[in-house]
């Protein structure tokens, strides 16, 4: 959400600013392009320090521990033995790849792939209550 008098400067305009910086002063660039002098200075500084015209946001979040290969390995185990426990999946993963991850990580990875748990319910009939 823009605040104050900010406006979006297109990457093409920023490329133009860095090209013009070879021949003109920042004050002349600001006058010619109708972009604020501060934005011109910041664009030139970004170009000189990073080699890019605009700042690119970093990847958000932490990278996943389990690779797609690891997840497909776990899926294969679940398909082969549908009633396998998470602790058994954890052990098989550790024994085959040497990767030790928490059971919740395995559960979340399988849940993202569409696997769910079957919940056990105990039904008591009226005649047989314990």
TrEMBL record:
Do you know which Pfam families this protein is assigned to?
Answer: HTH_23 (PF13384)
Mind telling me which InterPro entries this protein's record contains?
A: Homeodomain-like_sf
SUPFAM superfamilies per the UniProt record, alphabetical? Homeodomain-like
**Protein name per UniProt:** Uncharacterized protein
Please report the organism this UniProt entry assigns to the protein: Mycena rosella (Pink bonnet)
Ranked from the top, the taxonomy reads: Eukaryota, Fungi, Dikarya, Basidiomycota, Agaricomycotina
């Amino acid at each position: 959400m823009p605040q104050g008098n900010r406006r979006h400067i297109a990457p093409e305009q920023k490329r133009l600013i860095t090209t013009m910086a070879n021949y003109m002063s920042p004050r002349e660039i600001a006058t010619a392009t109708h972009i604020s002098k501060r934005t011109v200075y910041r664009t030139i500084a970004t170009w000189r320090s990073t080699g890019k015209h605009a700042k690119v946001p970093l990847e958000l979040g932490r990278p996943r521990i389990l690779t797609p290969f690891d997840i497909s390995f776990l899926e294969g185990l679940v398909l082969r033995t549908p009633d396998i426990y998470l602790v058994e999946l954890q052990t098989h993963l550790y024994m085959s790849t040497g990767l030790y991850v928490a059971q919740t990580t395995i559960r979340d990875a399988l849940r993202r792939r569409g696997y769910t748990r079957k919940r056990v319910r105990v039904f008591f009939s009226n005649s047989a209550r314990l």
